[in-house]
Write a structure and sequence with these properties.
Layout lengths: L3 H9 L6 E5 L2 H18 L8 E5 L7 H18 L10 E6 L3 H13 L9 E3 L11 H11 L16 H10 L4 E7 L2 E6 L1 H14 L6 H13 L10
Parallel strand pairs: 1-2, 1-3, 3-4
Antiparallel strand pairs: 5-6
């Protein structure tokens, strides 16, 4: 018989693993799930498995930064109360925010609103250079700032981890889909119109090679490590 965590997750349409990372939107989850599938096709093992899943906070306005904060807060509370008979947590949850104004605000606000939700332990912020896995929370915060000083002022979203080759093709095939761009020290962030994100996902699923997914796989490996899940098997 399923417990309360499973029952609530089912209402969101989620398929849970033991450890789960909540992301802002369905396109984010689709990109990361297909990167995992490419890894399975090339290396024989997926990166998203029974130990670690990426799940979307919701569709459209039900997702976004508010969706991550809302779902994460709820699921952490439910998981805490729905433990195994021996008292161990049956499920773990984290939340990943895009590094834009809304994401940075939510990332900082949630940990201040609820001190049990700690930055770089339960919540994570995307960066062009993700901090080393490490063990210390303060170390990750410091390293995130230090590593990304060369990219200060640059927003960053999960789509930006796709290869330049694939993103360039996406722009050629979808004129006007990129509504703004900003380049800092060799890294480029593209603001993609929401309706066009589905087209990027379709292109990624249809044509991406494992090389096109290399940075997404690196992100998944890092997130697994942050949550204490085995990650050394992940290859580019």
């Amino acid at each position: 018989m399923s417990g309360l965590v499973e029952q609530v997750a089912a209402t969101f349409g989620w398929t849970l693993a033991r450890t789960n990372m909540i992301v802002e939107g369905t396109s984010d989850a689709a990109l990361m799930n297909h990167a995992s599938e490419l890894h399975r096709m090339v290396h024989g093992v997926p990166v998203l498995d029974q130990n670690f899943a990426v799940i979307a906070a919701g569709h459209g306005d039900d997702g976004g930064v508010d969706g991550v904060s809302r779902r994460l807060t709820a699921m952490l509370q439910i998981a805490e109360s729905d433990r195994a008979a021996n008292g161990a947590l049956r499920y773990r949850f984290g939340g990943l925010y895009d590094n834009d104004h809304a994401g940075r605000t939510a990332f900082d606000l949630l940990s201040r609103t609820d001190p049990r939700i700690r930055r770089y332990t339960e919540t994570f912020l995307l960066h062009p250079a993700m901090p080393a896995i490490g063990d210390g929370i303060s170390d990750r915060l410091i390293e995130a700032t230090t590593l990304n000083f060369p990219f200060r002022g640059l927003d960053w979203e999960i789509e930006d981890f796709c290869s330049d080759r694939l993103l360039a093709k996406f722009e050629r095939e979808n004129p006007g889909a990129v509504v703004a761009r900003n380049a800092v020290n060799g890294r480029t962030h593209r603001d993609i119109a929401r309706p066009a994100k589905a087209e990027l996902v379709s292109l990624f699923i249809a044509e991406a090679t494992i090389e096109d997914a290399r940075h997404l796989l690196g992100l998944l490996s890092t997130l697994r490590g942050y949550m204490g899940v085995a990650h050394d098997f992940v290859k580019g």
